[in-house]
Amino acid sequence: MYGFCGENDFGDATCSYNGTAKRLKDEVALKTLEDICPDIFQETNVLCCSPEQIGQLQKNLEIAATLGLARCPSCLSNFRKNFCQFACSPRQSQFLKIEKLGESDEGDVVIEKLTYFMSRSYAEGMFASCKDIQGLTPGSTVLDLMCGGWGRECTPERWLNFMGSTPADDGFSPFEIKYHLTSDSELIIDGQKFNPMNENTTSCSESPYTGAEACTCLDCEAACQLNIASPPPLPAEKEDFTLLHHDGVSVLCLIIFCFVTAFLLLGFFYFKIQSRKSLRFIPSQVVEKSQDLTDSKKVGGEETHQMPDTEIISNISYLQKLGAAIERCLEQNFCQWGTYVAEHPLPIMALSLVASFALASGLLFRFTVTTDPVDLWVSRSSQARQDMEYFNKHFEPFYRVEQMIVTPKNKSSFVQSVKEKNQLKTYTWGPVFNRDFLLEVLDLQLAAERLVARNKNKTITLSDICVAPLAPLNKNCAIQSIFGFYQNQRSLLEDKNFDYLGHFKDCAGTMGEMKCFAPYGGPLQSTEVAIGGFQNSEYHSATALIITIPVINHYEQTLNEDALLWETVFIDFLKNYQSENLTVAFKAERSVEDELERGSHSDILTVAISYIIMFVYIAVALGEVNTCKSMLVDSKISLGFAGVFIVIVSVLSSLGIFSFAGVPATLIIIEVIPFLVLAVGVDNIFILVQAYQRDERLPDETVSKQIGRVVGQVAPSMMLSSLSMSSCFFIGALTDMPAVKLFALYAGVALLINFFLQMTCFLCLFTLDVKRQENHRLDLFCCIRTSKQEKINTKGVLYKFFKNVYAPLLLNNFSRVLVLITFLGWLCSSVAVLNKIDIGLDQELAMPEDSYMLNYFQYLSKYLSVGPPVYFVITDGYNYSDQSSQNRICASHGCDEDSMMVQLKWMADRSNRTYIALRPVSWLDTYFEYIHSPSCCFHLNNTHCPAESRRKECQSCSLPRSQRPVGDIFNKNLRNFLQEIPSQACSKGGRAQFGSAVELKYSDKGAAVGATNFMTYHTILKTSKDFYEALRWSRKISGWLTDKIQNDSNSNVRVFPYSIVHPFFEQYLTMWPDTFNSLSYSILAIFIVTFLFLGLDIYSAIIVVITIVMIIVNLMGLMYWWNISLNAVSLVNLVVGVGISVEFCSHLTHSFAISPEPTRVKRAQSALQKMGCSILSGITLTDCGILVLAFAKSQIFQIFYFRMYVGIIAFGTLHSLIFLPVLLSLIGPPVNKQKMYDHIHLQDIASQSRISQANDASM
């Protein structure tokens, strides 16, 4: 064949020619041939191609080079040999066989079909050198685009046959070329001898000729193995700690439990034997008598604390004196305050209420509630938040996602054949490819596109707010769905003659073909974003369609108002959409925030019922009803409601204070703090009221003085618990997590205000109620007075139970050992599972049970086939116009062997560890290809000329492939690259793909590059662990890249990863350290406050802390067994657990510490008698209202509040009423000798007073 003979249906027609090769004399053609076919040029100057053919060959080869083959010189060299031999070789007749001739429009004989005999080794060598070259999108290759519909299933035969196909078969050849691959060196066909074309090929890891470079690692897997640089070693995977082939922690806990249990049992039997031996030689009456002696002795193995006064005084340490002085000071001051308040109840109550309402008034002016998940869970000082702000500021926020996942109700697959390269191939198609189903889903998509929202006098359509990369030239939205393959045209799917399945097969494999472009003017990001429910790239087996509508997300939130309104219409439309054939799961960008807020509102009734139950219990339980006749007098309903009212006022005051300060509240604060303050406040109320009820008025003592004396006794304990909890929360506010910080601040202030109101307002009301009762006036109806009833002094059934039954039973020797062993086993079993607690918060749990988002999350987990995009950002300040700086980033010829792009390729190759699914596409390398292509870069008077529609006077700005754009040339032409729309003339235009990847900064000196990013994708992420591990690895990779860039240059730029999901999961990277720090700070605060307000009693402080730690550890064990994950919400509740545990422990420990009983056992019994009833009735039973939360619609309420609060109350009760008394009876603090002396001295004064009064009476 030689020359062109007119045209055929597909372009220039090649003439049939059987003569000898001709000498080429055209100097321009010779020069061109030397450039593109050096092997043939050096071999001979007689050829079978004309100058016109050489010119056309140059254009065609340049198109292939521009598509990406030029990235690998070895591939391009091998590729050129194929077509150079085909078009110009003087030995054409040895490997080309004409199969069909035709006639051109000028009447010449032209070729219509021929067979190209080619050595298989050459074909495979050429294919191997090109198959890894990076394509236009992350993870794709150039051959995905150049292999027709085969895409990732490309083989040497399929690639060659596509290149030899005509436009009638979606190819580009002007006549049909049938490639015949063979391993034989000689063939006889129809009596004619052929020698298959068998040129040498160059491996992509080798240089094709002197002066050229081998392919880079990014485009050649073989080159990676020869790379001097090697990928950074990945940290070794953590191995589970094991002992004896079992979980190591569990085995250690079991060993510790067995050892300590054995020690306890041996100790128990030893002291039992020793006790019997000592009692054997001591008459029982002596033992009994000895317990009344003042000498310090050991009786029955236990030390008493009674000694003569002179010995007590001589043995008092300074610390004991100071501690006793502190307690005496507190008691005296509270006594005086209580007396003063009881004498002036009305003015003090009025002042306290006025102050509280003044604080609460802040709610009327500046009260706001934060519902934005980012503001709730991501600190502004956190790295992820700063990275997100940087990305949004320098580029643009990640688009708002409106998404539908559609599945057919009929799940039946069907079998149908499609035409693939002139061959029928049968596939089993998934149910989503049913024609009727596709038509209905297309109608759904089009209906969504037509939705209109209204904002005042303005209408808002999707085109007003959507992402349209090619606007204003093309205003169509970049909707990602398979209907983009059909240009959203219903007529194509309805056409029975149109092979819609074959078309999908072609486009799914090669999205870059123009016929597959969506109406917005570009391809899908990937086939995986539009379909789901398939395995191993078998797209035809998909069971779900995914429609994603990207909407512009403005950096200024006020500019998103139109999008929010349209999303509301979108949600309402899909909520009301019904179909007999399909199911739609959907979400809008605003959906999560909307559903969180709705969920909190939907549980208002549940929370209200819970509060009412607790209120009613408090009102009834506070009373001390002795007889039916005095029931209405002795009841405390009004006082109970007053106590609850004070809790509400304290919460409102706290909200008001922070509203004045401009600090927003959260739904967690509004819903949880009332429970917390109620638990503390009501317990203090019970302690105060029951202490007065059990007290006996001294002779000549007024009501006011009695109240003052009782307040002096119990107020230090009340203050201890309130200050301990407040300190716990204030220190807990040191955390960076906004939701936890705000909760801790609000709770700490509310508890302080609550204590203030208890010591003022409630004390006033209590005084008035006592006077009402003593005047025999009815509760609630104080104007009605009854006849005087004889007062029956009774301690109550619960008090008698604790005194006569429970305390003696619990504190006998056998029970104490049994309790210690039981609680030790419980503690060890909890420690054994701490490291197995899941970290994270499943998105489904944050939604109400009836939320449409639950269905969406389930579909997302089931059908999602690609992870979220992740951007590796280089901060502003990097000099991209310097060639050495370019080499550290790019992956083209001359770039560093361990450049940023190569390292990211290494990471993508190990996606099972790194969570990086695909190698990214580099805007820098694409820019090089753009400026090296003679058909791309054009300008006129420094103004960009589009390659597709350039005017004749436009001048080329392309550079030779051996020359890099540097300096001003780099910056000036980069702007052209970012304005160029991809087209058939120039596929490397960067506007659609990289328009938002490069920040251009303009000044008087022109444009310069600011921050840039390189996009790829995470692997499929389904669980919380997947998400935060993906973030962890992204940061490790970015750290390596930052070190690489900074070490090789003087630049201080930083590389950081950003994905829209990263800010929400950053908290889980440090969840255990955050949990440990928050709980440690809280417990430390409790230790300090307890130490100070228990009279510098370090023993008591340590015992309180030990018990609280046990409660929290066991609560965390419950989290494992009851499937409660560790996250910000559960951490808040753990902090709450620490606070409420103080209530359970501090009162009992304080009562033990001030008890004057002679032995630890008796002191423990005394403390249990006095405080056990108040703990059970004031905390445990009060908070039983939380059981109602089990019926809440919000799963967060059910799991993180109901389950954890049940654990807090149950475990707090068990530890305070069972374990703590036993622990105190064994290692409780010794009696403060100064307190003992003061107690004996007061008893002596009281005894002398009684004797004097008796003598006076007898006289």
Structure write-up:
- With 1259 residues, the protein is an alpha+beta fold.
- 53% of the residues lie in helices and 11% in strands.
- The chain contains 46 helices and 30 strands.
- The protein has a four-stranded antiparallel β-sheet with strand order 20-21-15-22, with helices on both faces. The chain has a four-stranded antiparallel β-sheet with strand order 28-29-24-30, sandwiched between helices.
- It is elongated.
- It comes from Larinioides sclopetarius.
- One of its GO terms (biological process) is cholesterol metabolic process.
- It is a multi-pass membrane protein.
Provide tags for this entry:
1259 residues; alpha+beta; four-stranded antiparallel beta sheet; 11% strand; elongated; sterol metabolism; cholesterol binding; cholesterol metabolism; signal; glycoprotein
Globally, the shape reads elongated
**Beta-strand percent range:** 5-15%
Kindly state the percentage of residues in helix: 40-55%
Main beta sheet strand tally, sense and closure:
4 strands, antiparallel
User: Which runs of at least 5 residues are low in confidence (pLDDT < 50)?
Assistant: 279-305
Q: What is the number of strand segments?
A: 30
Q: Structural class of the secondary elements?
A: alpha+beta
Average pLDDT: 84
Give the helix tally: 46
| Chain oligomer state | single chain
